[in-house]
Structure formats: structure tokens, C-alpha cells
Amino acid sequence: MNEFQKSLAELKIVPVVTPYTVQSTIEMTKAMVAGGIGSVEITLRTDCAWDAIKAVQDLGLPVKVGVGTITNANLFAQAEAIQADFAVSPGISNKLLARSEGSLLPLLPGIATASELMQGMDYGISTFKLFPAMAINAPALLSSFAGPFPEIKFCPTGGVTTENAAGLLARPNVVCVGGSWMVSKSLVESGDWSEISRISAAAMAI
Ligand code: 3PG
After folding, report:
1. Are 32 and 7 in contact (CB under 8 A)?
2. CA 100 distance to own-chain centroid
3. Which residues contact 127 (CB under 8 A, 6 or more apart)?
4. pLDDT for 81-99, tens place per residue?
5. Which GO terms describe its molecular function (predicted)?
6. Tell me, what's the pLDDT at 57?
7. Coil/strand/helix, residue 161
8. 95 in catalytic set
9. pTM greater than 0.90 (yes/no)
10. Contact 82, 57 (CB under 8 A)
11. 101-128: b (≥16 Cβ within 10 Å) or e
12. Nearest CA residue ID for atom 9, ligand 1
């Protein structure tokens, strides 16, 4: 495994966070870290996303802060400029892959097919987000990809839960799993931070 793969394997779970507000993103992160989580992928899905990312970085918690929903090269450059720990995209494009090549910011690009995987490999990528994992039958795809792509590792994301995470993590070509199940909108809206800590701890215990 390369260094990025090793760090993802240590993290095991990459929570996918929607930053509804700066304050709720701070509280979510604190709650997950209290539950043993070591990373957050904060998605660029709301107007306050960059402010929320900066606020979480400034907390100084033992948590890797990644930027999600990197859908183009410009957003990758912005994530690089704020010294994010990692970047995640839902899919790939040649412009994004070219921009990430040689960068110190690791990109975890989303793929769902062998052709997309090979496109990423052309740019030196060996770790992919398998997305949307459960909608595309991740267990079957992971078995199928292991034959022609033995050196490639995956972070299945999309539809992952406490129940199916163990089966995915047990696979030799899976380094970690991603998902939002520990920070559902209803938990965040109700401010149930202790429940977020509890679900996070359960996830880390897998
Ligand atoms: C993502 O953007 O990675 C997904 O929305 C996460 O999927 P989930 O909400 O099903 O966990």
C-alpha cells in the first residue's frame, strides 16, 4: 500500500458531512472525534462550506479534514490552497485528474466502472471512491475489479451503514468506507451530538 492508502486504512471510516451551518459542522466534528473518528469529508454542498471547513481546521482536533464534492479543477485548487488533508470527488474528469497530478493534496476520485478506473490510472491514481457503492452492487464490483486491478484500492461510499460496513471493510481491496450514516440530517437538526458520538464509536468498533 502507498502512504495515502495506509492513512485511509488507519482512518477506516470517512464520514461524509454536509455543512448545514458552520456551528453544526463544528459540533458534528467534535461529536465524531469523541466517538473515535479520525477524518471528515466536508462536502461543498452549501454556501457556508468553505467557512465550515476553515472553522473545523482551526479547531486543531486530531482529525484529517478533507474537502468533498470536488467536481472540477478549480475546486481542487481551492482545496489545495487551504491545505486540506485530502480531496474527494464524486466522479472523474480529465481536467480534474490533470490538475491533481503531482499535487501534495491526495485526490480520492469517484468511479463506478472499469473504464473510469483506467482513466484514473492514466493519471497515477491507485485509490478510488467506489460511488454510489450500494446502488451499483459494490460487493460484486469489488470482487470483479480484484481480478484485473489487483493493486487498486477502494473506499466504497454511498448507501454504506453500520450493518454493511463490516462486510465491505473485510475485502482485501477496500481500505476504508465513506458515508453519512453517523451524521444524518435529523440527528444534526435535533442537535443529538451524543447519538452522533455513539454511532461513530459503533462504526469505529467494526
Ligand atoms: C457522498 O456524497 O459521498 C454520498 O452522498 C454519501 O452517501 P450516503 O449519504 O449514502 O452515505
Report:
1. no
2. 16
3. 2, 4, 5, 8, 106, 108, 152, 153, 154, 155, 175
4. 999 999 999 999 999 999 9
5. 2-dehydro-3-deoxy-phosphogluconate aldolase activity
6. 98
7. coil
8. no
9. yes
10. yes
11. eeeebbbbbbbbeeeebebbeebebebb
12. 180
Q: How many residues does the chain have?
A: 206
> Which position has the grid cell 482545496?
79
Residue with cell 481542487: 76
Sole residue written with cell 481491496 = 173
The label of the residue with cell 469517484 reads: 110
DSSP 8-class letter at 157: B
Contact in structure between 90 and 110 (CB atoms under 8 Å): yes
* C-beta neighbour count of 180 within 10 angstroms: 18
CA distance 44 to 161: 22
Taking only the tens place, the pLDDT of each residue in 152-172 is 999 999 999 999 999 999 999
Exposed, middle or buried: residue 162 (CB in 10 Å: 0-12, 13-18, 19+)?
middle
Q: Which three cell numbers stand for residue 53?
A: 471547513
ω into 150 cis (within 30 of 0): no
List domains and CATH numbers for the chain. 3-204 (3.20.20.70)
Q: ipTM value, please give it.
A: 0.89
112 phi and psi angles, rounded to 5 deg: -135, -5
CA–centroid distance, residue 172 to ligand 1 (Å): 22
Would residue 129 show up in a list of annotated catalytic residues for this protein?
yes
Residues having CB within 6 Å of any atom of ligand 1:
16, 90, 131, 157-160, 178-181
